[in-house]
Design brief:
The chain is mainly α. Helices cover 70% and strands 0% of the residues.
Length: 79
């Protein structure tokens, strides 16, 4: 699994757990809704500043967000 796909999967899961639509997350993070969609689909990779902004909007730490991405990638490694 690519990093961008893993990040997108984690972002979508965290957003849904927070009960936010893409539009509401984008509003809280002060980014475009279209960008949230592109991130969730794994088409774009976020910059470090976007990771921090999204983490704040999701009320988690950036390190926790990245740890979940890492765990997701490890879970999809071939055995």
């Amino acid at each position: 699994m690519e990093i961008s796909a893993a990040f997108g999967k984690v972002l979508r899961r965290k957003r849904k757990e927070a009960g936010l639509s893409q539009e509401k997350l984008a509003e809280k993070a002060d980014i475009q809704r279209n960008y949230v969609s592109l991130l969730e689909r794994g088409e774009y990779q976020p910059t470090i500043s976007v990771i921090f902004t999204l983490a704040a909007a999701l009320e988690c730490s950036p390190s926790a967000l990245i740890a979940e991405v890492e765990a997701t990638m490890k879970a999809h490694l071939p055995q």
